[in-house]
Amino acid sequence: MMFKAATAVSLAILLASGTMASAQSDAELQPANRADMQCMAIMAFGAGMMEEGSVEQLGLAAAMAYYLGRLEARAPDVNWLEAFGPYLLTDFENDIKVQSDRCAAEMTRFGARMTSWGEKMQSMAPKQPTKPARPR
User: Fold this and answer.
1) H or E segment at 81?
2) pLDDT tens for residues 12-30?
3) Which residue of 55, 62, 86, 95 has the fewest CB atoms within a 10 Å radius of its CB?
């Protein structure tokens, strides 16, 4: 519930602040950035639909942060959170239908890479000596 409320409040602030009329920047229109903004929105939407504090909600919030990080790495001068509000009100409804499978596949591939990396790191960790069993 808190995530839904925070999203609604953020959107209301963006609407009231007049940022809706601002033109999209060149960075926002670049295909890679547009694709990441689409996925960020889909993850945020999904997180808002999940039970507050659930593993699913936390996972989707982490995925949203992943996409935000990619956007900020490519174009650090753009306020992506500010750009997010106008996007939600213009293109999101169509994009969620078209892009959700792509975004889910991207997250699945990313999750598989992270799992593989985690397994590799575990195999490289020094083995802890086993303690001998206590005599009874």
Assistant:
1) helix 80-90
2) 444 444 444 345 677 777 8
3) 55
Cα–Cα separations (whole angstroms), residue 50 to 11, 99, 101, 121:
19, 20, 18, 31
Tokens representing 85? 């509000």
Q: How far is CA 11 from CA 40, 55, 57, 132, in A?
A: 15, 25, 19, 60
Q: What is the pTM of this model?
A: 0.69
Q: Say how far apart CA 14 and CA 20 lie, in whole Å.
A: 7
Q: Two tokens at 108?
A: 């699945």
What does the pLDDT look like over 74-100, one tens digit per residue? Answer: 999 999 988 887 777 777 777 787 889
Residue 1: DSSP 8-state: -
